[in-house]
Structure formats: C-alpha cells, structure tokens
Amino acid sequence: MFTGIIQSVGRIGKIEPRGGDTRLSIQVGKLDMADVQLGDSIAVNGVCLTAVRFDQQSFDADVSVETLRVTTLGSLHVGAPVNLEKALTPTTRLGGHLVSGHVDGIGEVISKKEAARAWQYTLRAPQAIKRYIAQKGSICVDGISLTVNAVHDTDFELTIVPHTQNETTIAHWQVGTQVNLEVDLLARYLERLLQAGGDEIRDNSLTTALLTRAGFITGQP
C-alpha cells in the first residue's frame, strides 16, 4: 500500500527485455534506500513493483507482460522521469489517500492551462472507470494522490499547485501524455457492496441499515 505522496522523481536507467517481459533498472534520485530490503514494493508511476536488486542509487524490478499491457510502463524510454514512492509503514503519515499500486486504466492529458500560479489539467479516463471518478474525490495519477475538481463524462479536471508540479513528473505533462490511473479504493468496495446487495438495493437505494450490516457503519451516532 502507498499514500500517493511522491518521495522522489527517478529516471529509467536501463530497459532489458527478458523472454517477453521486461526488467527495468531505475535510478532513484533522492529516494532514501537505507531501509529498503530485497523484495520490497516501490511504486513507479503508480505501479507497484518488487525490488529484485538495489543499491543506494538504483533498483531493478521485473515487469510482467500483463503490467506492460495495462500500464504506461511499456512505453517508457531510457532517461524517462518516473514518480517513486516506497510502501507505507504503520507510522507513515497518510498525507494523500490509500493507494494499492494496481492500475485501473490509462488516461490521457487533453488540455493544460495556467491558473494563477497553479496549472489546470483536463484528463480523459477510459469509459470503464469513469463511474468511479467523483467531484472532490481522490484519484491516483501516475502514483500521485490528487483531488478531482470537476467531472464531465469521461473527462475530469485537476488543479496542480506549484509544489506538486515541481516535485513530480507533472512538470513533463503535455497534451497527449498518457498516464496511469487508479481509482479510490472506497469506490471499488462500495460498488461491490451494491452488487452483492441483491434484492435490498435493486431500487438503487443505499440505506443506513444496509451499510451497518456490511460493516461500513459501527457504533452509535
């Protein structure tokens, strides 16, 4: 699990094809590797990868055919910047939102404009995941925990403050840039709850009683 708060912008150091899949070597930049162990998870542009070799400057990770198919990792080139975050610990501050590192789809930047000192971006999501994206809700874009400002069918808007722009790969986004999208975990589980509700929610009603029985509400108000 991750928080979506980027700890370093690294770069792709080497791309090595291996029998259909790929091994990436990633230069970690300012990421502190002192507490990393073999087999640890590190999010790379929002994709949870396993460190199979590491030192203080870089780590290697194998990327499966499936991951190459459903994320943007397969389109990266040597030297490409990537967002990095180590897996959270029980003492980690949850400054963003809970992120699994499992990408739901690939989005695309369709507009970019200045908004005072910030930047406003419009992204287009795949049709299959648009129902999970809510105004003022959270979404993970290339591993970055961001707040959705507005939603228009499959398009959604983000306002990026200067710090986030400068400390992540967002500084490199242009119209046409493809990005990894992961929707909010709560949206996934709520949909599953609705699907499992059977006759209780066929009229699309979501009651306090149903949420209580499902364990989403506990105790007394």
Automatic annotation (TrEMBL):
Q: What is its EC number?
A: 2.5.1.9
**Sorted UniProt keywords:** Repeat, Riboflavin biosynthesis, Transferase
Pfam families named among the record's database cross-references: Lum_binding
The protein's matches in CDD domains, at most eight in alphabetical order, are given as: Riboflavin_synthase_like (cd00402)
Q: Where are the Lumazine-binding repeats?
A: 1-97, 98-194
The record, for PANTHER family, names: RIBOFLAVIN SYNTHASE (PTHR21098:SF12), RIBOFLAVIN SYNTHASE ALPHA CHAIN (PTHR21098)
Q: Report what the protein is called.
A: Riboflavin synthase
Q: Which organism is it from?
A: Permianibacter aggregans
